[in-house]
From TrEMBL:
One of its GO terms (biological process) is ubiquinone biosynthetic process. This is 4-hydroxy-3-methoxy-5-polyprenylbenzoate decarboxylase. The lineage of its organism: Eukaryota, Metazoa, Chordata, Craniata, Vertebrata. One of its GO terms (molecular function) is lyase activity. The keyword Transcription does not apply. PANTHER family: UBIQUINONE BIOSYNTHESIS PROTEIN (PTHR12922), UBIQUINONE BIOSYNTHESIS PROTEIN COQ4 HOMOLOG, MITOCHONDRIAL (PTHR12922:SF7). Residues 32-43 have a biased composition (Basic and acidic residues). Residues 1-50 are annotated as: Disordered. Keywords: Lyase, Membrane, Mitochondrion, Mitochondrion inner membrane, Ubiquinone biosynthesis. Pfam families: Coq4. Residues 1-11 have a biased composition (Basic residues).
Length: 276
């Protein structure tokens, strides 16, 4: 029988035929079928049906083939235009199936990381007291973070929410990674130009293992001049790699509770060597 048609069981009662692509026991009514069972409204049953698919707000379920196509397309666009942050975000989500669980496990086995997973803090303008951060002493994490945002004209609200990660907890992990990216710029002392982004990507590639970071670290330098390539190869990349290997997991730091701490002492605590 076709999906959505009606057949009669042994009891003689009519019921919907489960869709062949849905898991057993989780079949949903078709959109064209009347929705008045058990006294529930059509809207309530439609919301229940969406719950069979969506794991969190904005989630878009995709098959492995769809993820592969999205990864290929987003990789091409990100290499063509590294400032296409939407394509970089899609690439990170569709290729992070191995790295994200590893990052989550690191967080679960660390006291501060575990608290972050439980409390799910967000770094957004709505959660930041910008006036307070501006009033902190020079050299503190909070003051230098705000200085970085203002000098580079960037906002934490530009970080895209995850869509293609098929696990609610892993979706938060990649969201957290995105929201502390500017914190990495602050701690590493790198601007948002192409040279700075490549250096940060080398550090993050070592730290996270995300293929998106590796791709950006390897292919980002094609957009640099010969002089900047020389500085990158001889000074910045070796420093970023050493720092990435030496540092503790960057997702295990509750940055929102470290605003008063000096950048220098936080670098030392995490294991980041002073910038060259």
């Amino acid at each position: 029988a076709r999906p959505g048609s009606v057949r009669r069981g042994r009891s003689g009662r009519a019921g919907p035929v489960p869709h062949p692509l849905l898991p057993a026991g989780r079949a949903c009514l078709s959109h064209t079928e009347p929705r008045a069972r058990d006294g529930r409204s059509g809207k309530e049953e439609e919301e229940e049906e969406e719950g069979c698919y969506r794991l969190y707000p904005g989630h878009i379920p995709t098959s492995p083939l769809q993820k592969a196509l999205l990864a290929a397309g987003s990789a091409f666009m990100a290499l063509y235009d590294p400032y296409r942050h939407d394509m970089v975000a899609v690439l990170g989500e569709t290729t992070g199936c191995l790295a994200l669980p590893n990052l989550r496990d690191k967080m679960k086995h660390h006291p501060e990381g575990y608290r972050i997973l439980q409390e799910r803090p967000r770094i957004r303008l709505s959660t930041l007291d910008m006036a307070r951060l501006r009033g902190l002493p020079d050299g503190s994490l909070g003051r230098e973070y705000v200085r970085f945002l203002e000098e580079n004209k960037v906002s934490p609200d530009t970080r895209m929410p995850p869509k293609f990660v098929d696990d609610e907890e892993l979706a938060y992990v990649i969201q957290r990674y995105r929201e502390v990216h500017d914190m990495m710029h602050t701690l590493l002392g790198m601007p948002t130009n192409m040279l700075g982004e490549v250096v940060v990507k080398w550090f993050e590639a070592i730290q996270t293992g995300l293929p998106m970071c590796v791709l950006g670290a390897v292919f980002g330098p094609v957009h640099l001049s010969a002089r900047k390539l020389q500085v990158l190869a001889t000074e910045l990349v070796p420093w970023a790699i050493r720092s990435g290997r030496n540092a503790n997991c960057i997702l295990n730091v509750y940055y929102e509770q470290r605003w008063e701490q000096s950048v220098e002492s936080l670098r030392e605590e995490i294991g980041i060597f002073p910038p060259p």
